[in-house]
Specification:
With about 350 residues, the protein is an alpha/beta fold. It has two domains: about 220 residues, Rossmann fold; about 100 residues, Alpha-Beta Plaits. It has a six-stranded mixed β-sheet, sandwiched between helices. The protein has a four-stranded antiparallel β-sheet with strand order 11-12-10-13. β8 and β9 form a beta hairpin. α8 crosses α12. The chain is elongated and about 75 Å long. The relative contact order is 0.18.
Length: about 350
């Protein structure tokens, strides 16, 4: 069941279009990611969902079981962690959580939240590390016992250890049944945490899918890359291309090798010798071979080429980064998925 439904959201500031046309739905209990280049409209979108900004057009429905709820009722069901947590330097963790808890009619146990986030109640805000500040920000977003948590650029600027600790906190939030709307720049974060993700570019949704689904759309095949110690024959190249696991096989450097062979052949003939380095009927010596395909590609290739021929062997795969870049290129064509989006918000739309 969808707990958030965004339908043709549009947000403008005068002549500036921040969000062009965004539609997506979020299922209850899932972690739903929103990714896009800087200025794509991600933060503006989630600020509209959170009720922090009023859409210019379109609708946002939050099915949080309140019926015809007031704005105050609704905001108790949506916790928000914005891009940066800013509190007075001298305020202590326990004081901040206690203060925020007082804003809600049915707050969570803020002491338990602090313990879950690994925070010392007596520590002042000024003494907290970047990771601790972000975890405090998440705890403050959860102190009202919301059904939906919006987390914006949660781990930007954190070191790898702090980032992983924050991911673990998000995983625990999800286990409690809270629906999470996560804005991020990190594809590893998307793969680790998100059930589905919307890719936003220039104010429009380009795709909504699982992380694995996005990779598959981008052509989730494998690429086997290696260099040759001696030329591949035409027969070997033909055998590679005939393998059922192989979709393409190309050799880089063949043109240069052919030219070299022709020159060396001419020199050898002029000297009355043999045509050294001739590449007739073969690829260039030392050329790079790229074999693309699926299944057990490595075993298939090694069945037709001797291992002694290959050096610098490496296996490459299409990644979520590749899919993201393909979907957000300025020249990207038609949208995929429920809808579309635009540029950037006035205040914080750096995401």
């Amino acid at each position: 069941m969808a707990i958030i439904t965004v339908d043709h959201l549009r947000k403008t500031y005068g002549a500036r279009v921040a969000v062009e046309d965004v539609s997506f739905s979020v299922e209850e209990g899932e972690v739903f990611g929103i990714v896009g280049r800087n200025g794509a409209g991600k933060t503006t979108t989630v600020e509209c969902v959170a009720g922090l900004r009023t859409p210019t057009a379109g609708t946002i429905d939050l099915d949080v079981g309140l019926g015809p709820a007031s704005g105050a009722d609704l905001k108790e069901q949506v916790g928000v962690q914005l891009q940066e947590c800013s509190l007075p330097d001298k305020i202590r963790v326990g004081e901040a959580l206690s203060l925020y808890a007082s804003f809600y009619r049915r707050p969570a146990d803020w002491r338990a939240l602090a313990a879950e986030a690994g925070l010392d109640l007596r520590a002042s805000f000024a003494t907290l590390s970047g990771g601790q500040r972000q975890r405090l920000s998440v705890a403050l977003a959860l102190v009202g016992s919301p059904r939906v948590a919006i987390l914006d650029e949660l781990t930007t600027g954190l070191d790898p250890q702090a980032r992983r600790e924050t991911w673990e906190l998000v995983a625990r939030i999800r286990q409690r049944g809270v629906t999470v709307l996560l804005v991020t720049h990190f594809m590893e974060e998307v793969e680790r945490l998100c059930d589905r993700v919307a890719v936003i570019s220039r104010g429009r949704v380009r795709a909504v899918d699982t992380p694995a689904g996005l990779v598959a759309r981008a052509g989730g095949e494998q690429r086997l890359v290696f260099r040759t110690d001696r030329p591949l024959t035409d027969e070997q190249v033909t055998a590679l291309r005939a393998l059922p696991e192989v979709t393409s096989a190309t050799v880089k450097g063949a043109v240069e090798g052919a030219v070299k062979g022709a020159v060396m052949g001419a020199v050898g003939s002029a000297a009355g010798g043999s045509a050294l380095g001739s590449t007739a009927g073969s690829t260039a010596d030392g050329g790079e071979v790229v074999v693309a395909g699926d299944g057990d590609l490595l075993s298939a290739v090694m069945a037709v080429l001797p291992a002694s021929l290959m050096r610098g062997l490496r296996m490459e795969r299409t990644t979520l980064d590749d899919a993201f870049l393909a979907l957000t290129e300025p020249s990207h064509g038609p949208s995929y998925g429920p809808s579309p989006e635009p540029a950037r918000s006035v205040s914080q739309e750096e995401s």
